[in-house]
Amino acid sequence: MATVNGKDLNMEQPAVPPSSLIRRVSSRSIRNSISEDKENGENVNTVKGSFVSKYKKTPEALKNFHMNDVENELEVPGTPMTPRTSTTPGHENCTFHHDLELDHRPPTREALLPDMANSYRLLLTGLGEDPERQGLLKTPERAAKAMLFFTKGYDQSLEEVLNNAIFDEDTDEMVVVKDIEMFSMCEHHLVPFYGKVSIGYLPQGKILGLSKLARIVEIFSRRLQVQERLTKQIAIAVTQAVRPAGVAVVIEGVHMCMVMRGVQKINSKTVTSTMLGVFRDDPKTREEFLNLVHSK
């Protein structure tokens, strides 16, 4: 049995609670803990190292508690990032890269069209069609161009889209932009889903240009997606942009993979939501946002 400095390396390590569990700690539970400490005769301002004393002394840290936790959540496995970027030195501006060829000239999006068009031509042949007949002669090229447009979000970054449209403003009142049209592609069947996105946030000294909220929706919806992940990505992007006290996102979508195939339920809608910060902790704030979203 291997040991280092007298410690058994094969001993089972204590489980680390998932970040999703940590995020659910609310201000209400903190207040309850403070009350319990008082009942036990403990001074919450002097108990060193306790969770309660930390946030009792520094209420500002409580405001940012959820925000810090979502900082890197776009990096979690299974989350599609922009595939044509690299952090390798010399590749910062590449749209397509090979890590061992730092002096290469990356192809443009237009250079990808011939291979994509050939793939569509093969697909038409597999369906039993004749790609050379008049009606389908230009279809492979058209389809390739359309797919590049449907997935243009892969070549967009948050910094590029925001373009410094972040402004200092002494306000902490709720900002809501609702019914933003959204079109995306289901990654399971490569068919569209579409709907409306509503975004709300509580500023902390900084606001975002209103049109930028719609552009954030475009970045992540114009990729191969699932609605659940899309909802979370939009919320985290707004958090990274202006560091608000909280962000709320609700998406109502219609999925053609349910309408055109499978169960074929043409009237079904899928509603997803992500609540961060104050919107997760404070029921009244969450209720106010939902009332604004659902009002006519």
Question: Could you describe the 3D structure shown?
Answer:
It comes from Parnassius mnemosyne (clouded apollo). This protein is an alpha+beta fold. Helix content is 39%, strand content 18%. The chain contains 13 helices and nine strands. It has helices at residues 19-23, 27-39, 51-57, 59-63, 65-69, 113-126, 139-150, 158-162, 210-221, 227-242, 256-259, 278-281, 283-294, and strands at residues 3-4, 7-8, 166-168, 175-186, 192-202, 206-208, 224-225, 246-255, 270-277. The chain has a five-stranded mixed sheet with strand order 7-4-5-8-9, sandwiched between helices. The chain has a two-stranded antiparallel sheet with strand order 1-2. A two-stranded antiparallel ribbon has the order 3-6. Helix 2 packs across helix 3 (51-57), helix 6 (113-126) packs across helix 7 and helix 9 packs antiparallel against helix 10 (227-242). The protein is elongated and about 65 Å long. The N and C termini lie far apart (68 Å). Mean pLDDT is 76; it is low at 12-31, 43-68, 74-86 and 98-102.
Describe what is shown at a glance.
This protein is an alpha+beta fold and 296 residues long. The chain has helices at 19-23, 27-39, 51-57, 59-63, 65-69, 113-126, 139-150, 158-162, 210-221, 227-242, 256-259, 278-281, 283-294; strands at 3-4, 7-8, 166-168, 175-186, 192-202, 206-208, 224-225, 246-255, 270-277.
